Amino acid sequence: MKKHNFSAGPSILPQEVLLKASEAVIDYNNTGLSLIEISHRSKDFVDIMEKARALVLELLGLEGKGYKALFLQGGASTQFLMVAMNLLEKRAGYLNTGAWSEKAIKEAQMLDDIYQVASSKDANFNYIPKGYTIPEDYDYFHCTSNNTIVGTQLKSFPNSPIPMVCDMSSDIFSRQLDFSQFGIIYAGAQKNMGPAGTTLVVVKEDILGKVSRKIPSIMDYKKHIGSGSMLNTPPVFAVYTSMLTLEWLKGLGGIAAVEEENEKKARLMYSEIDLNPLFKGFAAKEDRSYMNATFTLENENLKETFESMLKEAGISGVNGHRSVGGYRASMYNALPIDSVKALVEVMSELESKA
Ligand code: PLP
């Protein structure tokens, strides 16, 4: 039986993507060679890279708007530093909404002064701060659109007077936004796009080249753009599989179509959390993430029964992060609504047993 996979990441990919990707590992496009043994400079792979980069801009509605898409390595964690290396001259403002924001702040602080425009640390990050001001004379403003661990999500973005940089690792391609409000968007592939190993960076070219520091080549967005995202050997399998997921998303009807489905899944999940007296949601209601629903079981004595029922129903990956405890149901793009129905059924069955 295929499991209902609620893992927070690396997470679920569409079945058809997995099939095509696995075929390519054996014989790519009837070339008699595996995708992972052909030259990244061959036409076959350059076409894949170019298609993936173009699909990103098309799906985000950023074609012809001065943006470039890059598939880099080192995870979103490398972007914490790379953003600062490329943009930080004197000071930057960061919105602190959780562990990932904190890590981004820590890395950028190695280079220069960082100012936290607001933080929700006072309440273990269970809400998104609002009503803060972004100083106009800073180099950039950084935020995390979806807080994977605590299950909060920015429902709207501030009108930033300076380039806005956003870590969208756990909700990229999940909802419609005006993506042109961002100067840089970055995301590790392994939630809504592909296998771990590549990181998507979408950068508006005209915000680059304004810092006085020397930037090592591998950290320099301009150099990556200049080399067509092939400054060094790219992670060919991760890029190819990401391209397949982007094609799948386009085939579904793009972000608008998947957003509708994501809303249905989230509504189903949160209505069970709210109506079932055995469970309690962790995040403030207005800031709840449509990707990661976090909740606790109020009666600890039912823990064992609940977990064995989950196992029986083929539900995996719902354990909460150690810093929050309880449970976390991650409902990324490729998770079918039937999986959410299966989880909700177990939760309501537990209520009838209790
Ligand atoms: N940012 C967010 C919001 C994440 O959820 C994660 C990982 O889960 C990261 C950054 C770190 O990504 P990576 O493991 O690709 O460095």
From TrEMBL:
The protein's required cofactors: pyridoxal 5'-phosphate
InterPro entries: Aminotrans_V_dom, Aminotrans_V_PyrdxlP_BS, Pser_aminoTfrase, PyrdxlP-dep_Trfase, PyrdxlP-dep_Trfase_major, PyrdxlP-dep_Trfase_small
List of residues binding L-glutamate: 41
Annotated catalysed reactions: O-phospho-L-serine + 2-oxoglutarate = 3-phosphooxypyruvate + L-glutamate; 4-(phosphooxy)-L-threonine + 2-oxoglutarate = (R)-3-hydroxy-2-oxo-4-phosphooxybutanoate + L-glutamate
Residues covered by the Aminotransferase class V domain: 5-343
Keywords, comma-separated and alphabetical: Amino-acid biosynthesis, Aminotransferase, Cytoplasm, Pyridoxal phosphate, Pyridoxine biosynthesis, Serine biosynthesis, Transferase
Binding-site residues, pyridoxal 5'-phosphate: 76-77, 100, 148, 167, 190, 232-233
PROSITE patterns cross-referenced by the UniProt entry: AA_TRANSFER_CLASS_5
Gene Ontology CC, one term: cytoplasm
Gene Ontology terms, MF aspect: O-phospho-L-serine:2-oxoglutarate aminotransferase activity; pyridoxal phosphate binding
Cellular compartment(s): Cytoplasm
GO biological process, one term: pyridoxine biosynthetic process
Pfam families: Aminotran_5
Domain of life: Bacteria
Pathway(s) per entry: Cofactor biosynthesis; pyridoxine 5'-phosphate biosynthesis; pyridoxine 5'-phosphate from D-erythrose 4-phosphate: step 3/5; Amino-acid biosynthesis; L-serine biosynthesis; L-serine from 3-phospho-D-glycerate: step 2/3
Comment on bound cofactor: Binds 1 pyridoxal phosphate per subunit.
Predominant cellular place of this UniProt entry's protein: cytoplasm
EC number: 2.6.1.52
Residues recorded with modification N6-(pyridoxal phosphate)lysine: 191
UniProt signal peptide: none
Function in brief: Catalyzes the reversible conversion of 3-phosphohydroxypyruvate to phosphoserine and of 3-hydroxy-2-oxo-4-phosphonooxybutanoate to phosphohydroxythreonine.
Record PANTHER family: PHOSPHOSERINE AMINOTRANSFERASE (PTHR43247)
Record family assignment: Belongs to the class-V pyridoxal-phosphate-dependent aminotransferase family. SerC subfamily.
HAMAP family: SerC_aminotrans_5
Subunit organization: Homodimer.
Protein name: Phosphoserine aminotransferase
